[in-house]
Amino acid sequence: MIRYHIFLSMATGFSLHSLHLTKLHSPNPTMHNPKPSPRVCHTHSPNRISEVISFEESKTGVKGILESGVTKVPPMFHVNLDPTDTSPTDSSLAFPIVDLRDIDTDSARRVEVVDRVQSACHEWGFFQVVNHGIDVEVLEEMLDGIRRFHEQDGEERKRFYCREKEKKVRYFSNGKLLRDMAAHWRDTIAFVANPHPPNAAEMPHVCRDIVTEYTKKVRGLGITIFELLSEALGLKSSYFKEMDCAEALYILGQYYPQCPEPELTMGITKHTDCDFMTILLQDQIGGLQVLHQNQWVDVPPVHGALVINIGDILQLMTNDRFISVYHRVLSKNIGPRISVATFFMNFTISECTSKLYGPIKELLSEENPPVYMDVTMKEILTNYYARGHDGNSYLRPLRL
Ligand code: OGA
Ligand code: NI
Q1: Which residues are near ligand 1 (CB < 6 Å)?
Q2: Which ranges carry the Fe2OG dioxygenase domain (predicted)?
Q3: What is the pLDDT of residues 235-284, one digit of tens each?
Q4: Which is more confident, 28 or 302?
Q5: Distance 127 CA to ligand 2 centre (A)
Q6: Which residue in 189, 305, 316, 325 sits closest to 256, CA to CA?
Q7: What is the CATH number for 370?
Q8: Closest-lying ligand to the alpha carbon of 324?
């Protein structure tokens, strides 16, 4: 059977003129993916392709679909749900919360906190922090700023719609839309926030000031968390900072519109984050779940809290002591849900250095030999961008 597979010209980013349809003979498209996730489609019918193209050309995202009066979830967003994936979770599993109060003044508290952080990173790969030092007004204004961007007139949003990854501010829906077509019910405004932030003129005026302020605050918190993570591994406090883990920040302002048929689609399907660490700010709607002991556990919205998760590269550097776990966001018939994900990693290939990242030597021994190879960020990113959002870990090809 002949199927169609879409290729993008990376040189021009994601312009529809660079989109080529190439005939491939099945099963080639799944050749590198021996165990495809049930919810992801790698080959696409011509109908689906034209649906995706007209969605992309609208440049107004999922929000634009609703604005046009559509009341059903269009087929390109339909996800093949595996029934075992939605089984009820054990409500006795308490998602870890870490209180950072007094960690700089009370050394006994700090020891306790480092201990909690170490077990959360080892067992869950996720935890929430409270009393982290960022004012709740800043968090609320950041969520509001992202909402203002997504809720302004479609013509205004369109001006920012872009697929060029080198651009410092861009609006898009589904970062990997044409690669995997597991279209998610979600729109995004992305900022390459540090170390070379966009200039004021590049920023949408509705959220310019707060994005600049939030970037500074979240980077400061990131440095604190990296210190706790270093201490949790028995390394000197500044270890991860000196490895430049807190240098590059990529901020995604996610907007999950209310969904008329939530059982047919997802806000974001199962994935791990390909970075050192992520700090997530979520509103009160809920829907984020993490895979823990083979069950999907809700990350309960806690007012004023931030969610921290370990990314793939920290799992690699800690040789699996800290884990980068699968998570996803369910669609809901209430909304919109707004979240802000800050990725500590450089997502701009042209800015990558030749610095090598691999399992930390101090953590290795004869009983604990390295299980990953050393890699550069450029190699990691190239692999990341080449792959679809296919439900497999980005770490798999890096295992020795
Ligand atoms: C992500 C992510 C979760 C959320 O952007 O990688 O997992 O709650 N986001 O938006
Ligand atoms: Ni994520």
Answers
A1: 252, 254, 268, 273, 280, 282, 288, 327, 329, 339, 341
A2: 247-347
A3: 999 999 999 999 999 999 999 999 999 999 999 999 999 999 999 999 99
A4: 302
A5: 14
A6: 189
A7: 2.60.120.330
A8: 2
